Amino acid sequence: MSSLCHSMVDRRTLLQAGAGLAAAGMFPGAVRAQTPRAEYNLVAAIARSPILGERRPGTEVWSYNGSLPGPEIRVRQGKPVRIAVRNGLSEDTTVHWHGIRLPNNMDGVPGLTQRPIAPGETFAYEFTPPDAGTFWYHSHSNSLQQLGRGLAGPLIVEEAEPYPVDRDIIWMLADWRLTPDGQIAPGFGNAMEAAMSGRVGNTVTVNGAISNGEQVHAGERIRLRLINGALARIMALRFEGHQPVIIAVDGQPCEPHQPADGRVLLGPAMRIDIVLDLQGEPGRRYVVRDDFYEDLAYTVTHLNYNATSPTRAIRDDSFAPLPGNPLQEPDLTRAERHQINLQGGMMGGGMMSGMGGMSDMAHDASWSINGHSMTGDGHANMPPLLTLPRGSNIMLTMHNQTAWWHPMHLHGYSFKLLSRNGVSVPYNQRGDTVLLAPKDAVDVAFVADNPGEWMLHCHITDHQVSGMSSVLQVR
Ligand code: C2O
Ligand code: CU
């Protein structure tokens, strides 16, 4: 990647390099060191990928740069990045930088924030990530298929000082529905599924392939960045014999804490950073299971300890918090309050709930927000559900009036999680995606400091595209 990047250094970059320019002609190497921003190139195209392992025929996927997941983008907090995306597909695409607080025209929503990238075209995304943390990027165009076929990758924004661990590991999780011969099953957008749990697959991968396990050493302390990149699958991970400590949610630092009953719960699009002290027995293998869907628990991967004895004695078990990100603290005494009701979906008896009298419900819609069903991945002229004055303090109460779970994602912001069903959320947690169980009511707050048109939608992709989407306008 880096040689590609350097060849992409364009005239503007050289100009921005300012004083370095004089030396540039003579010492091209010197300019590299001074390149003021990170440069990446992504090409979205069809590829083959060994999802089921190297011994099985590859699966035809849509991916960035031919790899699953897409290349790891790793940048520094507060340093500009430019990512040129070329569309090698035969349909339009865009890329959304999920969780990054960036200018609206870089947010990647087709029609709403940019003209889609047509086949053969290139669009350069440029932004400066204000927050350090674990983020990800994914297609926001024909998302069911483009995300469902593999167009996603990790995006890590590094803290100024590395967090004190021995290793920093990413597990990007994804869920595929594969046919017996290992190809992606057709049938995206099935209306019945869309009104229920969405397209949950049959094969969960870690970093693009079925996992044989993570090789670890006794005595290590690792930071594990979990990213749920699934279309619809909610995950609850248990680490047999280990006690994960959560240090960040959706990229945003929180007070280090152990999750409720040891389960790390991740809705689609959510990220959780955990610290794991590896105090298992050398030579042993420990299961990492997902038991979110009770009768369907399965092994995601293993922690495979090598046989050597611990590299060091057991550490003390205190965990430093990550340094805070520069987020404005909402002032609740002055907050404007809005109610966001999530409606629709199938009930027990096969009835659609709460959708009876909805006049503006699109024909293919199964869900709605406050009585409106906005369908698709984004398009021009999406009317805002709310217009929020720039700089105002906003509190949203999201009420899940359906019988299904919904991970609700707000673009362009990280909100503070205030309370769930009247109980305040502990550990100072923030997020850009909040998972609501059936009937949950969750209060979140933020300062509307980022102007633009921002999508608020469920990240179970079938729900998003069949009505559970809206736009919040900040101006
Ligand atoms: Cu990751 Cu509009 O979403
Ligand atoms: Cu949903």
From TrEMBL:
<dbReference type="Pfam" id="PF07732">
    <property type="entry name" value="Cu-oxidase_3"/>
</dbReference>
<dbReference type="Pfam" id="PF00394">
    <property type="entry name" value="Cu-oxidase"/>
</dbReference>
<protein>
    <submittedName>
        <fullName>Multicopper oxidase, TAT pathway translocated</fullName>
    </submittedName>
</protein>
<dbReference type="InterPro" id="IPR006311">
    <property type="entry name" value="TAT_signal"/>
</dbReference>
<dbReference type="GO" id="GO:0016491">
    <property type="term" value="F:oxidoreductase activity"/>
</dbReference>
<dbReference type="InterPro" id="IPR045087">
    <property type="entry name" value="Cu-oxidase_fam"/>
</dbReference>
<feature type="domain" description="Plastocyanin-like">
    <location>
        <begin position="169"/>
        <end position="291"/>
    </location>
</feature>
<keyword id="KW-0479">Metal-binding</keyword>
<dbReference type="GO" id="GO:0030288">
    <property type="term" value="C:outer membrane-bounded periplasmic space"/>
</dbReference>
<dbReference type="Pfam" id="PF07731">
    <property type="entry name" value="Cu-oxidase_2"/>
</dbReference>
<dbReference type="InterPro" id="IPR011706">
    <property type="entry name" value="Cu-oxidase_C"/>
</dbReference>
<keyword id="KW-0560">Oxidoreductase</keyword>
<dbReference type="InterPro" id="IPR008972">
    <property type="entry name" value="Cupredoxin"/>
</dbReference>
<feature type="domain" description="Plastocyanin-like">
    <location>
        <begin position="375"/>
        <end position="474"/>
    </location>
</feature>
<dbReference type="InterPro" id="IPR011707">
    <property type="entry name" value="Cu-oxidase-like_N"/>
</dbReference>
<dbReference type="InterPro" id="IPR001117">
    <property type="entry name" value="Cu-oxidase_2nd"/>
</dbReference>
<dbReference type="InterPro" id="IPR002355">
    <property type="entry name" value="Cu_oxidase_Cu_BS"/>
</dbReference>
<dbReference type="InterPro" id="IPR033138">
    <property type="entry name" value="Cu_oxidase_CS"/>
</dbReference>
<feature type="domain" description="Plastocyanin-like">
    <location>
        <begin position="58"/>
        <end position="160"/>
    </location>
</feature>
<keyword id="KW-0614">Plasmid</keyword>
<dbReference type="GO" id="GO:0005507">
    <property type="term" value="F:copper ion binding"/>
</dbReference>
